[in-house]
Each structure stands twice: as structure tokens, then as C-alpha cells.
């Protein structure tokens, strides 16, 4: 047992070190955090043949790959090869843990429970290395999407002021991206990406790509609104102003809805944590008084003393 414990500890420590280095150092540094990182993402080199082959070691259905690419873009990984790099890093972690577990199990003493334990730990670690990065990426994408939705009304207000000043929409996006970068860096990055796409293609196509990346109701509505106003030739500034007010109203309604759900969720902690002390305070004194009464009532001369009750019956019968 003295030999088995250090081996298990070393295996778990190796898993933690490999996981942290693989996910936080290799991939996190390629995430777009400001406008200046956009050029670096688009100039990223194509991964080599080994990394591409490693990405296809564990096959995935096309729907899962498409969902992974969308979460990567939502989280700020705009490179064309982000999906390949993510899958290659994850598969490398899984293979390293499986091979390490098999090697340690083969080197363990024969006839003991250590090989079986190492295989179970290796299987659980490999499953965790496959599932946890995807889960963390999804959470990061949801957090960044919420940040974009919160900062979108402020950016639309500045866009409206620029449009009212006579600037075209492309120049407005460049100006607004620089203005809101300090307060809403994620919104600034998205506006910069939309502006660059509009320089290559039309503004409507760039906004549709923006809506496809985010896949959020507010962003989809904004893309449809701007595309419609450009086709019909109506005032874009008025439409953007009304849309910004509508987004703020919806955000307030969602906050009120979450507050209402919180009230229902707080009911269970109140019942489980506060109800027992209240019951003890309300029912404790009567229960103690009832116990004292029953104890004293059975004493000689008490109300529940059966011997005194039998003596009184016998005296009555004698009379």
C-alpha cells in the first residue's frame, strides 16, 4: 500500500499539470481579447499534418463539429484552424492519459489491486479530459455572448449619434469599436469583425455572418433590421434607436423574470433551513410542558395516578 499511494498521487498530479498547461497555455493565448488581436487571429498559420491527424483520431459527427466551431467563435476564437487546434489538444490529453494509465498498470506489481485501480483512474481521467474542455468552452461562450448582449445597446446609441452626424455605417462601426473598446471589448471586437467583412462584401452579408456566429435573438433581429432598412432606403438611425430601446426593455424584462424565478428557488432553502428551527421554537416549549405534565401526573397523588384512582373506587364500593 505504501508503493500504490505515491503512484496514484503522481498519476493525478500529472493529469492536473497536463490539463492546465494544455488548455490554459496552448489555446487560451489565441483568444481575441481586443481589436488588435483580430489581425493575429486572421494571420494564424495552418496547423501541420500531425496536428490535423491528431484532431481526427477521435471521430465526431458533423453536427458536433459545427456546434464546436460556433462555440469557438462565440468565445472569441476566430481563427480558421481553431476547431482543429482544440480537437487536437483534447485528443492529445486523452491519449496521453490512456497511454500513461496503461503503462503504469503494466509496470504495477502483479496480483495486487493496483493495476485495476490505475485502469479505472485512467479511464475516468480520459473521460474528464474529453468532456471538461468542451463544457468549459461552452460556458465561456455563453458568458461572452451575455457580455455582448449587455453592451450592444450602448454601442447602438453611439452608432445612432454617428449616423445622425452624417457618417456612413461602415465608418460608424470603426468609430464605435474604438470608443467602446474600454467598456465593452467583446462588442468592439465583433464590430471590428463586421466592418472588415463589410469591406470585403456587403454590409448585409457581414451582419448575417455576425448573426450566424452569435445565434442570439437580439443579434438576429439587428441584422434583419439593418438589412431591411438598407433595402427599403429608410432612416437607419431611427430604426437603430428604436431597436436599442427595445433591447433595453427586453433586458429589463429578462432581469425581472430571473428575479421571479429566484423567488421560487429561494422557497426550497427556506423550507429546508428555516422551517425546522421555527418548528422547534414553536413546538419545543409545548412539548416540554407536556412531558413535565405527564411525568408529574403519574406521581402519587397526581391526575394520572392509577393507584389513587383504584383506592377511591374501593372506598366508594365499601360505602
Describe the structure.
- The structure is a single chain.
- 81% of the residues lie in helices and 0% in strands.
- It has 319 residues and is an all-alpha fold.
- Helix 6 crosses helix 7 (169-179), helix 6 runs antiparallel to helix 11 and helix 7 packs antiparallel against helix 8 (185-200).
- Mean pLDDT is 76; it is low at 24-29.
* Low-confidence parts: 24-29
Oligomer: single chain
Write the element-wise H/E pattern from the N-terminal end onward: HHHHHHHHHHHHH
State the major sheet: none
Q: Kindly report the average pLDDT value.
A: 76
Write the layout of secondary structure elements.
Blueprint: H1 4-27, H2 37-42, H3 49-55, H4 62-75, H5 82-107, H6 114-164, H7 169-179, H8 185-200, H9 203-214, H10 217-232, H11 236-265, H12 267-297, H13 306-318
Helix pairs in contact: 1-5, 1-6, 3-5, 4-6, 5-6, 6-7, 6-11, 7-8, 8-9, 9-10, 10-11
In short:
With 319 residues, the chain is mainly α. It has helices at residues 4-27, 37-42, 49-55, 62-75, 82-107, 114-164, 169-179, 185-200, 203-214, 217-232, 236-265, 267-297, 306-318.
Amino acid at each position: 500500500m505504501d508503493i500504490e499511494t505515491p503512484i496514484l498521487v503522481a498519476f493525478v498530479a500529472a493529469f492536473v499539470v497536463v490539463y492546465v498547461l494544455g488548455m490554459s497555455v496552448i489555446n487560451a493565448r489565441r483568444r481575441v481579447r481586443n481589436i488588435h488581436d483580430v489581425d493575429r487571429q486572421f494571420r494564424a498559420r495552418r496547423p501541420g499534418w500531425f496536428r490535423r491527424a491528431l484532431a481526427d483520431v477521435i471521430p465526431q459527427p458533423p453536427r458536433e463539429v459545427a456546434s464546436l466551431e460556433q462555440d469557438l467563435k462565440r468565445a472569441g476564437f476566430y481563427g480558421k484552424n481553431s476547431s482543429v487546434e482544440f480537437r487536437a489538444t483534447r485528443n492529445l490529453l486523452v491519449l496521453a492519459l490512456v497511454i500513461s494509465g496503461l503503462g503504469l498498470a503494466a509496470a504495477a506489481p502483479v496480483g495486487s489491486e493496483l493495476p485495476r485501480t490505475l485502469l479505472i483512474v485512467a479511464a475516468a481521467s480520459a473521460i474528464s479530459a474529453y468532456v471538461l474542455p468542451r463544457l468549459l468552452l461552452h460556458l465561456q461562450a455563453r458568458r461572452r455572448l451575455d457580455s455582448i448582449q449587455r453592451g450592444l445597446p450602448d454601442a447602438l446609441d453611439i452608432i445612432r449619434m454617428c449616423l445622425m452626424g452624417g457618417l456612413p455605417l461602415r465608418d460608424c462601426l470603426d468609430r464605435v469599436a474604438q470608443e467602446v473598446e474600454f467598456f465593452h471589448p467583446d462588442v468592439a471586437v465583433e464590430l471590428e469583425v463586421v466592418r472588415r467583412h463589410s469591406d470585403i462584401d456587403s454590409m448585409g452579408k457581414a451582419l448575417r455572418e455576425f448573426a450566424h456566429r452569435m445565434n442570439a435573438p437580439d443579434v438576429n433581429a439587428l441584422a434583419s433590421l439593418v438589412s431591411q432598412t438598407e433595402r427599403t432606403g429608410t432612416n437607419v438611425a431611427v430604426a437603430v434607436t428604436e431597436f436599442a430601446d427595445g433591447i433595453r426593455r427586453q433586458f429589463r424584462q429578462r432581469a425581472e423574470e430571473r428575479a421571479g424565478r429566484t423567488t421560487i428557488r429561494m422557497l426550497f432553502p427556506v423550507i429546508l433551513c428555516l422551517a425546522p428551527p421555527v418548528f422547534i421554537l414553536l413546538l419545543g416549549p409545548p412539548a416540554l410542558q407536556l412531558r413535565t405534565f405527564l411525568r408529574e401526573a403519574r406521581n402519587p397523588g397526581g391526575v394520572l395516578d392509577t393507584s389513587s384512582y383504584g383506592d377511591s373506587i374501593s372506598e366508594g364500593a365499601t360505602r
